[in-house]
């Protein structure tokens, strides 16, 4: 073993390796025979005597081990400035830990541990500790609380995978609860951890599986090592060690150790380090990253002074912030021992993994009390020192706790007790510490408190509930004079501290989360004790933050309110849970009720506040109350005690305790006026705020009122205030209540004074005042509606919990259809984050699935509309009016009347039953009457329609109530609800007002109240219905409503007529509206096409294709001498900028299309290739892997070239001005020539000129009869090339006199009619020429990423290349989608391809003729050998389509000097045939030969021909090409392989020559091979080309096959692309999103040694996982630091990229360094919604359609464009530093 290690240990004292682990352990001392210890070896050990410790025989084992450690540890760890973790670990294992393992096992641990493992009965607990970002699963059906989670493996093997589960990513820490029977209501075990049926779940001492010896030895070693680790980790001296570890001679080597804190930012630390220790930025980043991860890192190594100096610089530099960075100068041996201490702890953790027995021993050791008594166990010591330890140390020992104490059922309990005993101290340490919660031992509370049995045990035995609450109160020391909490200004620091304190509330929640099923007396007693403490806490909140109305001046400073509300919000669930606990036990409930009431009375001690008693009286009723005005005195929104009492009161009713044990309840002590007083004040405050009376109190009050009603708080605020009022009213005379209410609303005057209203309006009082009072009256009526109508809490009304939730949902969906997440947000969640929605949603709503965009929606079932209550108490004002509008619209659509009457309500519970009398009380009737009177008399502004509407609603409610009573009346029972009777009576003297009924009838005809007519009619109908019931049962007489029925009928007729007319008018209106919206939609649809590049839009067929009836369809030929002649067509276009129309001609001013040129790897077959050195790169030959292409796209919008120039100049100028002013980015980069299309804002970076077919501009009409055949033509061209080459050579040698030239020319026989000195005239106008150069240069610049240079010889090549590449990419898309080749293309694509092809064909006219000729010669030479070129690629390494395009487009440069009579068309045809044949040979050489496909003798002509061609190839390659299996097979390969090429060629020649496509190619369907061949002037049997030209072809084939590259390919020495090339897709994504999360959580940053990546990001193009948005993986690109994604786009996507940010579930598009946007991910939950940020945690599944859409954007090169549109739409996207992602 020693020898193996030797290479590792240069820096280490070799003597360390001299004895083996077993010797040290003393297991086999000296057993190795013949082993002679070198006696001359340097003495080791303390006394200078050779000393071999033999632990097994040692009397003082501790001393021996410590000596060994003292000697060895500093020699292994911390030997220099940088740590070598691998080396240190190997050595530590061998020298330090090995002996211990030997000692434990008593034999070789390689044998011993497996034995232990075998004897071990595996635990049923999984206990896997989660890594950061690892997916965790919780079952919403079976988890006891949401903190119960499973790891992915357990989850997949559990029953919960088919349940309603929730998925989240772990923040690190915490472990899998699989196997914990207390965590799951069902299915606690997964398959792996399940019980065998034979096993009995019973606790068994795990030590029985171990031998006595092993137990004893393990105990010894664990005790020593655990203590050692604790001692050294909690050691505080910096340059001294504990005595028994101290060495004799100490070197002067120190570390400057930097610690992590949460105050300083990364940037500050990096900056400071660069200054302090003189390191590079890279090193500083490295240090900072480690400090952040591990909590500390040495930043300097050397003598004391050297390190101390660095320390003072760091401290000085960072002390400007709140506190300086923590730095220690530490002796290297201290650091060494601390490092080993950590190692020892993780070692303990791994050793106990072998056996539950070992684990138990460790627990025993850890919890054993030390010599100092209380809190002296090792576990205690670690916990109590937690906040002093650095991050790395903390997580190591936390993990050890989790894998030991928390995994052992017996010790878990003991540990829980220790934890609870230390609770207060741990919490206050945590609060003052600044590390995140997950790095604090306090965070273990979730592991302990959420175990129901432990929680209950801790409550009963350790009084945990009280402890937590007391600890919490201790942290909130600031109180006002009344002892209530008082919060300081909410500064950042305050907020930080306060957040930490809140974790105690979370603990309280954990303790309460699982409710007891059984109560012991002890639990009752301690719970009630805790309840007392809780009341104490709430008492400090009762009345906190009181406010007084500001009059005159606006408040100067917004008062602090957030802290109080945060507290309330955090406590909301706890308050609810406390009530739930109380509900479970009658005794507890009764006691709690008493206690709560007592505390409330205390709070109200000074109830009257010295206010004057007054007497109110209306309608002969009078009541005593106090004078109190909300608008003048202090009032508070915080009333938790009275709200808790309200909650308990409902529970009394719900559990029927109130009826069972009335004698035990202090009901007689209840004073209803006292109960209602404060909640009423609070509600009046809300009303007054709404009425605008508190405007001067600023926004803080508005916010408070908002939260008071908000779904997060209302359950324990607003809702309970309503309940409290209901409680009070049900116990008092409703008339009294109404008078008190009038008084608190400050409306008593108005209603108690006769004719007040009249006087009020006649006096020209403040208009504001009138408005204010109107609003207050409306609010008061609303409150009455709520008090009587809100009976959907179980206990208030006779309903179940599902009724309540159903009603909430119905009202939410009455506003509008909603997505699942929206609905969840609007419903209150319980402590388990459940809304209960799933259980009822199906009964009230339909689900509508989402389309390609948008979300799935729930729509209210129509039959539920009748349960709609306009005055639902959880509506905000905006929601209420939206819902009203929506419901009325719905009714109109259904041709119903538009009344929205109150729904029928469930009955009250008996305790609240008397509430209904509010409706028929005298004061109520009086109020109703008064308001109706105002409406009848139509007092100016002193009443409002809303007021009337509410009164009508109240009347409706009363009628509903009466009807219900009558229908459910028990025989003989006296009916007490007689509303109909009361409203039929006219008012008493002296008022003598008409009856309410009479007034209703009057109002029915009031023309101004059209809106309310339907409602009034409904009321009257209802009234008559009740009357009928009464008459039929004739229990009590009802006053006659004379004449109503008579009137009714005549009125009805009248009505019917009016209604019919209205109906006709409505229909007409609707029709017009429908027409208009149809037109609008049409317009949008049409224009949408401008923005979405979709090939599938069939509607917009390119116009030019259609109107060409001129040519006969039958024999369309795209090229060659036989090319179908297309009559010239005149083309007119309109400039989008000046709107002028112009014809496209050769001489006219140039018209241009906005275009976007980009590099592309979409078609690439080799993503490792990219252009290394653009200056030297030669693009002439495109490799068949298409690794780097240049794509051109266009939105198809046409402009004058000069209009565009002017536009672009102005954009540029504007941009320069703007940048100077604002320094903002735009979505486009003007300096790079980018601009937005002025019409559609599509990102563009150049323009393409519009041209007529360029060939016709040159074609000299010739006699086609005598054209050369292929062989002749090749010979002629070869001669011409030769002539040119000679000429060129002489040009390059200027010495030779020009006369000789001509002689030489004659020497080499210039072919007949060839005039190399002829220079054709350029036919284009200057403006077109200029644009040809512009676009050519742009393509060159972008494609090669070089500076523009129009003279560069590569410019024409880039133009041809972009044309070829763009055609190929479109052909791929069409084939992938099985679209016809010449089917309807969107105009923009059609225009783009046409312009691009014609441009590329015309570009040679502005390039240098010799250059283009040179390119032609070289391209030609790749097929027809020519001695002058040596470095040509072999035919396997050429993309034939690129070659074809290059040859065809360069050819005119040669042909223009040829006057022999050979035409361009002839040349095109021959070039095309030649390249086609080369491609066939290429395909035959590379197609893989499948054997076993033998067919009988080939029959078809094609098959025979291809077989013979193959034979030729076989011969030419010297039999290297395998024999062909079958002709049929070969022919199939050739056809399949060549089809893409033929299709591209067809597109190319179609756009080049303008010959319309044959109709067969315009429709999709089966292969159109024959049509394609005909169109391209090819024989259907392609092999015939070879046969017809065998003379020349045989020699060419021979030359192709002789190439050495071809040979080496055939020998299998290199690869080659085979055909057809498959199309590139984005990577396959898994169906279940969690497997992606899992994959990402296993991914570690490639640069920082096994560290987890914070933002793992998946490249959807190649599947690489990247460590994004992090310093560690930044790379340098063009002199700038960029994030991993941006760096990756440059290699993988030549600048553009598509990523999936796995933690966020978000798609990221990037382009270049400055452009990016987020895109909605292709994963949806079952409700059809995405979950960006993974906040909801619903299971997510791949949506294929959406993924295909993303893929299409990519294939269509639209990523950059999409980013542009997103950035234009959302300016904030522009500001993001995309390059750092
Ligand atoms: Zn697990
Ligand atoms: Zn499991
Ligand atoms: Zn389940
Ligand atoms: Zn123009
Ligand atoms: Zn446009
Ligand atoms: Zn990284
Ligand atoms: Zn990639």
UniProtKB/TrEMBL annotation:
| First-tier enzyme category under EC | transferase
Q: Which UniProt keywords apply?
A: Acetylation, Chromosome, Coiled coil, Isopeptide bond, Metal-binding, Nucleus, Phosphoprotein, Transferase, Ubl conjugation, Ubl conjugation pathway, Zinc, Zinc-finger
Q: Which GO terms describe its cellular component?
A: chromosome; cytoplasm; nucleus; ubiquitin ligase complex
Q: Where is this region: Disordered?
A: 1032-1059, 1290-1313
**Key word Cytoplasm present:** no
SUPFAM superfamilies assigned to the protein according to its UniProt record, in alphabetical order: ClpS-like (SSF54736), Winged helix' DNA-binding domain (SSF46785)
What's this protein's family per the entry? Answer: Belongs to the E3 ubiquitin-protein ligase UBR1-like family.
Function per UniProt = Ubiquitin ligase protein which is a component of the N-end rule pathway. Recognizes and binds to proteins bearing specific N-terminal residues that are destabilizing according to the N-end rule, leading to their ubiquitination and subsequent degradation.
The name on file for this protein is E3 ubiquitin-protein ligase
Species assigned in the record: Cricetulus griseus (Chinese hamster)
Gene this protein is translated from: Ubr2
């Amino acid at each position: 073993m020693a020898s193996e290690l030797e290479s590792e240990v240069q820096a280490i004292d070799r003597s360390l390796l001299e004895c083996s682990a077993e010797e040290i352990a003393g297991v086999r001392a000296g057993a190795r025979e013949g082993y002679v210890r070198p006696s001359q070896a340097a003495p080791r050990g303390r006394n200078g005597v050779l000393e071999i410790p033999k632990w097994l025989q040692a009397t003082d084992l501790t001393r021996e081990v410590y000596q060994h450690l003292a000697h060895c540890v500093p020699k292994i760890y911390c030997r220099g400035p940088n740590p070598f973790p691998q080396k240190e670990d190997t050595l530590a294992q061998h020298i330090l830990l090995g002996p211990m393992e030997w000692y434990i096992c008593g034999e070789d641990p390689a044998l011993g541990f497996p034995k232990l493992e075998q004897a071990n009965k595996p635990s049923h607990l999984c206990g896997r500790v989660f890594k950061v970002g690892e997916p965790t699963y919780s079952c919403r059906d079976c988890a006891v609380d949401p903190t119960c989670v499973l790891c992915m493996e357990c989850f997949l093997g559990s029953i919960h995978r088919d349940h309603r589960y929730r998925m989240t990513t772990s923040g690190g820490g915490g472990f899998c609860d699989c196997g914990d029977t207390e965590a799951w209501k069902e299915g606690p075990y997964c398959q792996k951890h399940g019980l065998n049926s034979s096993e009995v779940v019973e606790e068994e001492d795990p030590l029985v599986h171990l031998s006595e010896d092993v137990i004893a030895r393990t105990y010894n070693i664990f005790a020593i090592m655990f203590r050692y680790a604790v001692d050294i980790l909690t050691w505080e001296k910096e340059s001294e060690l504990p005595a028994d570890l101290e060495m004799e001679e100490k070197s002067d080597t120190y570390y400057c150790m930097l610690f992590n804190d949460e105050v300083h930012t990364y940037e500050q630390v990096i900056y400071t380090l660069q200054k302090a220790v003189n390191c590079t930025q890279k090193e500083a980043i490295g240090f900072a990253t480690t400090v952040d991860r591990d909590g500390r890192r040495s930043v300097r190594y050397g003598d004391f002074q050297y390190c101390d100096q660095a320390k003072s610089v760091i401290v000085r530099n960072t002390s400007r912030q709140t506190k300086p960075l923590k730095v220690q100068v530490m002796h290297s041996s201290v650091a060494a021992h601390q490092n080993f201490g950590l190692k020892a702890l993780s070692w303990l953790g791994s050793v106990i993994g072998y056996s539950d027995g070992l684990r138990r021993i460790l627990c025993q050791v850890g919890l054993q009390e030390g010599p100092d008594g209380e809190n002296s166990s090792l576990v205690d010591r670690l916990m109590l020192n937690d906040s002093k330890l650095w991050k790395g140390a903390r997580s190591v020992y936390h993990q050890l706790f989790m894998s030991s104490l928390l995994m052992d059922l017996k010790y878990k309990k003991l540990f829980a007790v220790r934890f609870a005993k230390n609770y207060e101290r741990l919490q206050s340490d945590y609060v003052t510490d600044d590390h995140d919660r997950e790095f604090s031992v306090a965070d273990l509370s979730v592991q302990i408190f959420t175990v129901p049995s432990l929680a209950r045990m801790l409550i009963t035995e350790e009084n945990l509930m009280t402890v937590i609450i007391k600890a919490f109160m201790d942290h909130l020391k600031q109180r006002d004079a009344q002892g209530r909490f008082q919060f300081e200004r909410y500064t950042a620091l305050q907020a930080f501290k306060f957040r930490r304190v809140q974790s105690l509330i979370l603990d309280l929640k954990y303790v309460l989360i699982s409710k007891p099923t059984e109560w012991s007396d002890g639990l009752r007693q301690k719970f009630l004790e805790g309840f007392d403490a809780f009341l104490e806490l709430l008492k400090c909140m009762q009345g906190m933050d009181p406010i007084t109305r500001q009059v005159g001046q606006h408040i100067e400073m917004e008062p602090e309110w957030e802290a109080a509300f945060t507290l309330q919000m955090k406590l909301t669930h706890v308050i609810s849970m406390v009530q739930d606990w109380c509900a479970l036990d009658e005794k507890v409930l009764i006691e709690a009720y008493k206690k709560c009431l007592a505390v409330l009375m205390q709070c109200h001690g000074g109830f009257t506040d010295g206010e004057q008693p007054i007497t109110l009286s209306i309608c002969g009723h009078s009541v005593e109350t106090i004078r109190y005005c909300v608008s003048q005195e202090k009032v508070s929104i915080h009333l938790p005690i009275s709200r808790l009492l309200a909650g308990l009161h409902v529970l009394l009713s719900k559990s029927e305790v109130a009826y069972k044990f009335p004698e035990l309840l202090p009901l007689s002590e209840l004073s209803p006026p006292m109960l209602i007083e404060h909640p009423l004040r609070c509600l009046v405050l809300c009303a007054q705020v709404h009425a605008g009376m508190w405007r001067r109190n600023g926004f803080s009050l508005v916010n408070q009122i908002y939260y008071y009603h908000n779904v997060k708080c209302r359950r324990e605020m607003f809702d309970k205030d309503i309940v409290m009022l209901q409680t009070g009213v049900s116990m008092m005379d409703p008339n009294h209540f109404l008078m008190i209410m009038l008084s608190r609303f400050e409306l008593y005057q108005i209603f108690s004074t006769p004719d007040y209203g009249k006087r009020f309006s006649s006096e020209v009082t403040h208009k504001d005042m009138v408005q204010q009072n109107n609003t207050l009256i409306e609010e008061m009526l609303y409150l009455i509606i709520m008090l009587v109508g809100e009976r959907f809490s179980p206990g208030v009304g006779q309903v179940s919990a599902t009724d309540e939730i159903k009603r909430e949902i119905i009202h939410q969906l009455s506003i509008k259809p909603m997505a699942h997440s929206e609905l969840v947000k609007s419903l209150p969640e319980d402590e388990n984050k459940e809304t209960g929605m799933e259980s009822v949603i199906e009964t009230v709503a339909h689900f509508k699935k989402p389309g390609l965009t948008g979300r799935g929606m729930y729509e209210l079932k129509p039959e539920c509309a009748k349960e709609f209550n306009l005055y639902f108490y959880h509506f905000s004002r905006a929601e209420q009016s939206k819902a009203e509008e929506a419901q009325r619209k719905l009714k109109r659509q259904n041709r119903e009347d538009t009344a929205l009457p109150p729904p029928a309500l469930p009955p009250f519970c008996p305790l609240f039953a008397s509430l209904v009398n509010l409706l028929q009380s005298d004061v109520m009737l009086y109020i109703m009457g008064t308001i109706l009177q105002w409406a009848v008399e139509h007092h100016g502004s002193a009443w409002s329609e809303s007021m009337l509407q509410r009164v009508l609603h109240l009347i409706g409610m009363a009628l509903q109530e009466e009807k219900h009573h009558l229908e459910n009346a028990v025989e003989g029972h006296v009916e007490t609800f007689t509303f109909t009777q009361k409203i039929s009576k006219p008012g008493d003297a002296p008022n003598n007002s008409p009856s309410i009924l009479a007034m209703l009838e009057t109002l029915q005809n009031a023309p101004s109240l059209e809106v309310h007519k339907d409602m009034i009619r409904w009321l009257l109908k209802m009234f008559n219905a009740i009357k009928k019931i009464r008459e039929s049962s004739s229990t009590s007489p009802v006053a006659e409503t004379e004449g109503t029925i008579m009137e009714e009928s005549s009125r009805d007729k009248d009505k019917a007529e009016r209604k019919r007319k209205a109906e006709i008018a409505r229909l007409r209106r609707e029709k017009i509206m429908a027409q208009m919206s149809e037109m609008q939609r049409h317009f949008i649809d049409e224009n949408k096409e401008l923005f979405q590049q979709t090939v599938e839009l069939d509607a917009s067929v390119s116009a030019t294709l259609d109107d060409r009836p001129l040519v006969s369809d039958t024999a369309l030929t795209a090229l060659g001498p036989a090319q179908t002649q297309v009559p010239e067509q005149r083309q007119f276009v309109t400039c989008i900028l000046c709107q002028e129309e112009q014809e496209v001609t050769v001489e006219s001013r140039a018209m241009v299309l906005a275009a976007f040129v980009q590099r592309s790897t979409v078609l690439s077959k080799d993503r490792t290739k990219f252009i290394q050195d653009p200056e030297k790169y030669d693009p002439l030959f495109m490799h068949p892997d298409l690794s780097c292409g240049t794509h051109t796209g266009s939105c198809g919008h046409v402009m004058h070239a000069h209009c565009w120039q002017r536009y672009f100049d102005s954009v540029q100028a504007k941009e320069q001005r703007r940048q100077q002013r604002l320094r903002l980015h735009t979505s486009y980069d003007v300096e790079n020539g980018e601009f937005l299309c002025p019409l559609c804002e599509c990102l563009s970076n150049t323009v393409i000129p519009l041209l007529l077919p360029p060939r016709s501009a040159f074609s000299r009409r010739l006699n086609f009869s005598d054209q050369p055949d292929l062989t002749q033509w090749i010979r002629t061209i070869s001669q011409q090339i030769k002539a040119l080459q000679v000429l060129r050579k002489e040009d390059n040698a200027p010495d030779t006199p020009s006369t000789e030239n001509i002689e030489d020319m004659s020497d080499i026989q210039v072919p007949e009619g060839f005039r190399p000195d002829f220079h054709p005239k350029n036919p284009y106008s200057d403006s077109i020429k200029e644009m040809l150069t512009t676009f050519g240069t742009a393509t060159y610049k972008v494609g090669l990423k070089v500076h523009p240079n129009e003279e560069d010889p590569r410019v024409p090549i880039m133009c041809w290349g972009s044309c070829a590449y763009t055609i190929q990419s479109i052909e791929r898309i069409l084939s992938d989608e099985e679209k016809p080749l010449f089917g309807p293309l969107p105009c923009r694509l059609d225009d783009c391809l046409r312009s691009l092809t014609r441009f590329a064909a015309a570009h040679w006219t502005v390039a240098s003729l010799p250059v283009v000729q040179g390119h032609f010669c070289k391209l030609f030479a790749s097929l027809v050998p020519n001695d002058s070129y040596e470095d040509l690629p072999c035919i396997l390494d050429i993309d034939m389509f690129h070659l074809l395009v290059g040859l065809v487009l360069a050819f005119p440069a040669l042909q223009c000097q040829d006057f022999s009579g050979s035409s361009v068309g002839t040349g095109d045809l021959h070039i095309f045939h030649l390249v086609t044949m080369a491609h066939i040979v290429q395909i035959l050489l590379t197609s893989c030969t499948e054997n076993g496909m033998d067919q009988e003798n080939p029959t078809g002509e094609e098959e025979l021909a291809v077989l013979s061609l193959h034979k030729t190839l076989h011969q030419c390659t010297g039999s290297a090409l395998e024999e062909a299996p079958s002709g049929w097979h070969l022919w199939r390969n050739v056809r399949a392989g060549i089809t893409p090429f033929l299709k591209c060629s067809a597109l190319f020649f179609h756009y080049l020559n303008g010959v319309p496509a044959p109709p067969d190619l315009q429709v999709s369907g089966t292969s159109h091979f024959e049509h394609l061949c005909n169109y391209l002037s090819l024989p259907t049997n392609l092999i015939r080309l070879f046969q017809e030209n065998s003379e020349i072809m045989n020699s060419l084939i021979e030359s192709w096959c002789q190439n050495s590259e071809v040979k080496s390919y055939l020998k299998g020495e290199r690869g080659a692309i085979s055909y057809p090339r498959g199309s590139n897709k984005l990577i396959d994504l898994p169906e279940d999103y969690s497997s992606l999360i899992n994959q990402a959580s296993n991914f570690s940053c490639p640069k920082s040694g096994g560290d987890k990546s914070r933002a793992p990001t998946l490249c959807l193009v190649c599947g690489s996982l990247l460590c994004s948005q992090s310093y560690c993986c930044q790379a340098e690109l063009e002199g700038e630091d960029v994030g991993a994604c941006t760096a990756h786009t440059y290699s993988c996507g030549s600048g553009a990229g598509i990523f999936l940010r796995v933690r966020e579930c978000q798609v990221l598009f990037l382009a270049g360094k400055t452009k990016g946007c987020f895109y909605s991910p292709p994963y949806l939950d079952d409700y059809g919604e995405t979950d960006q940020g993974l906040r909801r945690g619903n299971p997510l599944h791949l949506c294929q359609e959406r993924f295909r859409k993303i893929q299409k954007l990519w294939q269509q090169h639209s990523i950059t464009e999409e980013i542009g549109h997103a950035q234009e739409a959302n300016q904030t996207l522009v500001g993001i530093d995309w390059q750092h992602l």
